[in-house]
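[Meeting: bench + compute handoff]

Bench side (C.D.) handed over the final construct sequence. Compute side (W.E.) agreed to return the predicted structure before the next meeting so the bench team could plan truncations. Sequence as handed over:
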Amino acid sequence: MNEKRILLVEDNPDDIELVQIALSSKRIVNHLDVVTDGEAALSYLFYQGIYQNRSPRVHPTLILLDLQLPKVDGLEVLRQLRAHEATSMLPVVVFTSSNQEKDIRQSYEAGANSYIQKPVDADKFEKAIAELQLYWLILNEPPPDSGIPPQGY
């Protein structure tokens, strides 16, 4: 499927709104799926719970993942994604407020493709989202067959 989709895993309503505004202004993404905790992200990606009937033909082109999440933190979400063959190559950008060296290191060790500290300024935030879109949705060539649901879930 050629539809460009982003899965935003974010619990801050203000950041969700800023991402939505930035994405709609550039019109690159056909769809933005939002989940507000790590448990919901895993359910979405592994076709469980309320997402069990989600079409296996529809998967994110990019995952924007916050680290500080309720229920399951972002690092654990990332580890679980990378542990399963079907989701191991989905592009994941950690997009978080933390600039702590240990968070950056642990994110890359867990398999992040990129780590970006969220800008505090709204204009810079929107510009960061626009640049993410340009690179990950236009310039980057995604891995083949990424996002196929894992068997047995």
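W.E. noted at the follow-up: The chain has five helices and five strands. C.D. will use this when planning the next construct.
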